[in-house]
Predict the 3D structure of the following.
Amino acid sequence: MDKIDADYFDGNLDAAIYNQHKKGLLTNKMKLDLELERYKANSVSYPQLDNDAILNLCNLEVVYKRSSSKTKRTIVKSLFPEGFTINK
């Protein structure tokens, strides 16, 4: 917007083209603002992960192998909350 304003005031754009570009930019800005608000309204906030949690996620295979059966069930349930079955 600043660029077309500068071009208009410097005489590089006539009034009709300036108004056309300005109207188009303002319309696009309004659409983007509405879309941004919609995304903000639908966004989910996630808790901040500390370094230990991130390290455990990065090394999940090792953590799983070293875990008790109860912790292994918790890990699997967090990955598959609806559960799963193994067919033979």
The two ends are 64 Å apart (CA to CA). The mean pLDDT is 88. Residues 47-88 form one domain.
